[in-house]
Structure formats: structure tokens, C-alpha cells
Amino acid sequence: MMNLFSRLSLIACGLLSISTFAQRESAKGYGYLGFDVSVGMLGDSNSNFPDHELHKSMFFNLGISDSKDEKYWRYYLNKPKTGLSFGFSDLGNKDALGYVFSVMPYADFSLLPKNIDGFSLLVSLGGSYMTKRFDEESNPYNKAVSTRFNWSYKSFLYYNLLKTNAHVWRLGLGYFHHSNGHTRKPNRGYNAFLLGTSIDFLSDGLPYQQDAIVEGLPKELQWFYTGRFGIGQNSFSDVFNSKDEVFAAAFSVGKIINRTFKFGVGLYYNFYGHYYNYIVNDETLVRTQAPHFKEHPIRYASAMGVAGSAELLMSHIGMELNIGVNYFKPFYKIDWQLNEGYTTFPKGQENIVLGELGGYYNVKHYVSSRMGLKYYLFDTDNAPKHNFFIGAFINANLGQADFSEFTFGYVHRFQL
Questions:
Q1: How far apart are CA 139 and CA 46, in angstroms?
Q2: Are 52 and 39 within 8 A, CB to CB?
């Protein structure tokens, strides 16, 4: 049975594509087929990482670009293309690293079209299936991922080399990342830096430069408040490596600019099942470092903070990034010491070598981040007073994965 993480990945893969194709009106735009190939360097995820050749990827893209759609988000985002990618990647070592099969919704934004013609940024977030993963006996030196299903993120900066009414050929530089969102350890992740080329075949012979959207869309500003509740999963350490739940809640307020750019600030609360169990079971570092945690296990298994958010609203789809500051996360000290150190059991006796409290610990203890996709029940371009959403997110301590989350929530907009 697929675990919670794999379901989250599939939700993330479907959110953008469902909305994109459901909203298509053939009289207002065109579809296109695209192919891209890339090669580059895959970084070593850990010491003694298996030898490997170049990273190689090939993607098939099914996209839509509405040339006359009078949507606010298309107007203010320079008429981006959206679609769904299906990919295959060879990590350079079929026996230890294997192959990757990806399904990834994407958005392709024109950059500075009035000043520099031809540059665009493709951003894609979805899920992948790995044919090889960490195994203590058969594949012990690949600590990049330990699950079959993983999150995948790809971004490419492209430049148009050749464009006609029938096709567009581009060259680009990009970054490709895979990890399981901390649902099981080890989870060092794959990181590749790539050089790629792509070609789009346009339907109906329509020009690549889209017709201008009707000018004169009014500039608008709305205040909003929103609340969300999420259920996630993560693993704790190499010893406590089973999955447990993380419960997340948040409330924020902010502004929506031109029905497209949503900025907010608010408070969040997370409760970690692994932290709670470690405390109530009176494990080693609670006994030796923080016995007072046992007096209030729920409190000390929690994290609270303040966060800012930035979101692009594209009809039913939202692409959101949060950056926050933990003002209360006392258990992270124990978390860091266990995960940056190691535990052995010579002759059945527990021997814990703790990670050092310094360097990145002082940053990751306080800085949180969160990135993912939302699907809104009502079209955000219509500025509904009430709206509801579901979403799939990766939460992190700075850039290090913390937990994967499925979330749902409510948004209330005030009058324009």
C-alpha cells in the first residue's frame, strides 16, 4: 500500500495539471508538445557514494498557452505556459542509483519580455519513482533516498535560439532535486546541475509570441485572512526510523495584489509525534539532558513561530513559499544531536555519539521554510469572498527537509 508521502506526491502532481486542462478553451489558445533533454553532474550525496557517470534526463511536455484569455494572472505574469511533464532520468549507475520516472506539473514564465527578449524560467514540482534506493545490505553506500516515491523539484533558465510559427528551440541551465521529504532516513537527496535543450512543437501553426491580452485590467488590492490545518509524516533518526505524524496549523493575514500576488504574515504551530514519544518513553537524551520535558510532553514536542508567505495565484492553482522563524522549538536540540551524530549498540549496549551544537544548528534551529502547491475550490481570478483549498507541501529547517504535509484550509477576502 502506498504510504502517506506517495499519496501527497501524486496529489502534488495532479493539482496543476487538472486545473490547467480543465480550464482550457480551444478558441482562446493553443496547445503544444515539448521535448527536452539534459546532461550534467550529479553530486555525491554522502561519503563513499557509488561511482557514477553523467546524469541524463529526457522529458515529454504537454502544455497549454492561452493567447487571448483575459485572466489577471496571465496578464501580470507575462502570459506563462503551464502543463505537465513526464520524465525519465538515468543517474549514471544502473546498479546502485538506478533510474527515475517523474510526473511534474510546471509553469514557464517569460522574464523581462519588454527589455530582454527570449529568456524564460521553468519551475516544476512533482513526484518521482526510483528503481533503486538505500538498502543496508544490498545498497549501503547510496544514502540519497530510502523510499521508492520521492518529491522532485526542477528549475531551468532558458533562452530561445530559434523560433518559428511551428516550433521553438531553446538552450538552458538548470537544477534538479529529489528527496522523500524526511519520511524515512537516510534522505541525503539527489542534486544535479544540468545543461539542456528543449523544443516545443506548436499546434495550428500559431505564432510563438502570443497575442497581447486586452489592455486596461484594473489594478486591485484586497485584504484577506486564512487558516489551515495539515497532517504530515516524517521519520526521526536512524534508530527511530519509523514514520509518525506531524500535525500543523496556522493563521495569517495579508494582501492580494491584482488577484495574482498574495503576501501574508502569521503564526504557525506544529506538533511532532516522534518528539512526544521520545519524551514519554523517557529515552536517553531526555533523561540526561532535559528531564523537565516529561512534565509537559505536549508542550516540548511542539514548535511555534511566525512566518511570511508569498504565493502566485493562477486560477485554481497556488504556488506558495513560506519563510519563518521558530520562537519555540526546544526539542530540536535533541533532534540535531541525534541526527548529526550516530548511535551504535556494541554488545547490546547503547552508545550515542552526539552531533556538535554549532555552525548550521544555530541557523536551522530558528529558520523554517515551506514550499508546495494548492488547489482552490473556486477560481481565484474571480476574487471570491470565501474559498477553500487543499495542498501538498514540504516543510524544512532552513533547506533541510523536516516533514511532508497534506493541508486544507479556508481563505476569506474583504471587499476590493
A1: 13
A2: no
Kindly give, in sequence order, each residue whose CB lies less than 8 Å from that of residue 389, ignoring residues fewer than 6 positions away.
Answer: 318, 374, 375, 376, 377, 408, 409, 410, 411
d(CA 129, CA 105): 15
Cβ pair 62, 74 in contact under 8 A:
no
- Report how far residue 64's alpha carbon sits from residue 83's, in angstroms, rounded to the nearest whole number: 6
Query: Helix-strand-coil percent breakdown of the chain, rounded to 5?
Result: 15, 50, 35
Alpha helices in 95-211 (DSSP H): none
CA distance 229 to 137: 39
Model confidence pLDDT, tens digit, residues 206-260: 444 444 444 556 789 999 999 999 999 998 877 777 889 999 999 999 999 999 9
Q: How far is CA 44 from the centre of its chain?
A: 21
Per residue in 308-354, pLDDT (tens digit) is 999 999 999 999 999 999 999 999 999 999 888 877 777 777 778 88
